Amino acid sequence: MTTIARTDTLTRDALTVLQPGFVGTTAPDWLLRRIGEGLTSVGLFGRNIATESQLASLTAQLRAEGDDVLVAIDEEGGDVTRLEVRTGSSFPGNLALGSVDDTDLTRAVAHELGRRLAACGVDLNWAPSADVNSNPGNPVIGVRSFGADPHLVARHTAAYIEGLQSAGVAACTKHFPGHGDTAVDSHHALPRIDVDLDTLHARELVPFRAAIAAGSKSVMSAHILLPALDPTRPATLSPRVLTGLLREELGYDGLIVTDAVEMQAIASTYGIERGSVLAIAAGADALCVGGGLADEDTVLRLRDALVAAVRAGELPESRLADAAARVRALASWTRQARGDVAGPGAETQEGTAPGIGIGIGTGTGIGLVAARRALRVTGAVVPLSSPPYVAAFTPVANIAVGDETPWGVAAELSGLLPGTATGTYGPSADPAAVLAAAGSRRIVAVVRDEHRHPWMSAALDALLASRPDTVVIEMGVPQAVARGSAHIATHGAARVCGRAAAEALLPTPPLP
């Protein structure tokens, strides 16, 4: 490890471009020391958050070391939540908002989410996803996208950015130049998108143009290979993509952030040190790391790799300095935005003040309003007259969503109809076991992306053959044919989506 003086400008710049994570609900000493040495950004994940008061204390602890610290989080709402990782989100995700197609609603949801983030001291959100979900088999985007129509995605991306940033939280539009047409999850391997430039401009880039026009403060790159743009390097490491396309052709002048450099699309191909150097050289300004590698050694490895690359002539010092300057400029904007939002006459929350939103009740709020509007019912719902049996057919969660966040309708139905029973079934599901467990109860079958899981479809086939009165609730992308006595598409698996679906099964839905 290189030993460098604290006052060294090059070292400070190298620390400034990192956006690392850490383990724990308080900041470790090593992180606080690095902030004093120039580290300007910190990324938060579900493992860092227990309660709203704890989160507010944590962000205050970070800012005590430097008022300009950018506190970032991956809080998309919907299926991808860090604020409410253990309870499920109070907000539906992008597909639900896109299905409603009311940009005022999207703007209001994003503003409320931003307000709650700001109240907890978070000021950079790695959202929204502007990916066009043109491949319905996409294993990692799905309900995180507003939809498959580029222009619908564009208008909701812009509305989301406007709502979020009006609350003083910087948006980070992702995953440039578009992760929607992939069949591979870049957490595991490098996806390849073989489309021509005309398709790219007519589809993938439409929402990013809208995001730039809406003033998105940052853009996150995707670890994907697009041979039409660069046949050898993934977008995160490609000067043609980040500098040529995003900066020069599209005219974007804000902060460019990489997706996590420890994802296998980069780590298993280039290694995180080499990948980080190539990303900054290509035009990225900040390196996201810490979802998987969340320790001091990782930070020092990346810092020293950048310093060594400059000293070896592999990375222009001016490029690193420019990247660090962009990070500091965004940190300055967020500090000013915090002051503006919390200024005279502004609505503020601190600590455990009501409405911060971690564990907020599902009966109120714009999130539940949006979730209710996003429901699509095929067939006629015969209301439940007694507690049902909920059979949840559960696929393996992708890394972005994680397996810690609960989903489904059983918990919500249990609250509305005490005595509701439930069972969880995976790829080896035996329909006979479901029928035996249900007994005489009405069955509510809950699925998630049925179209991507043949085992799920087969289980439903058998279940419906024996019990045609079964209600089917699809909480993923509703690509499969609607079936069941009634089919309810929620367009996402957030807690409020489960609540809205449960309400739809009652004889008399609760009042708004």
Write a concise keyword list for the protein shown above.
512 residues; alpha/beta; six-stranded mixed beta sheet; globular; disordered N terminus
Describe the fold and architecture:
This protein has 512 residues and is an alpha/beta fold. It has helices at residues 9-16, 29-37, 52-65, 94-100, 103-119, 150-166, 197-202, 205-213, 239-249, 264-267, 272-282, 296-311, 317-341, 366-374, 410-416, 431-438, 454-466, 495-504; strands at residues 18-19, 41-44, 70-73, 124-125, 170-176, 218-221, 255-257, 287-288, 376-379, 389-393, 421-425, 443-447, 471-474, 486-489. It has a six-stranded parallel sheet with strand order 2-3-4-5-6-7. A six-stranded mixed sheet has the order 9-14-13-12-10-11, covered by helices on one side. β2, α3 (52-65) and β3 form a beta-alpha-beta unit. α15 (410-416) packs across α18 (495-504). It is globular and about 75 Å long.
Q: Which helices and strands occur, and which strands form pairs?
A:
Blueprint: H1 9-16, E1 18-19, H2 29-37, E2 41-44, H3 52-65, E3 70-73, H4 94-100, H5 103-119, E4 124-125, H6 150-166, E5 170-176, H7 197-202, H8 205-213, E6 218-221, H9 239-249, E7 255-257, H10 264-267, H11 272-282, E8 287-288, H12 296-311, H13 317-341, H14 366-374, E9 376-379, E10 389-393, H15 410-416, E11 421-425, H16 431-438, E12 443-447, H17 454-466, E13 471-474, E14 486-489, H18 495-504
Parallel strand pairs: 1-8, 2-3, 3-4, 4-5, 5-6, 6-7, 10-11, 10-12, 12-13, 13-14
Antiparallel strand pairs: 9-14
Helix pairs in contact: 1-12, 1-13, 4-14, 5-6, 6-8, 11-12, 14-18, 15-18, 16-17
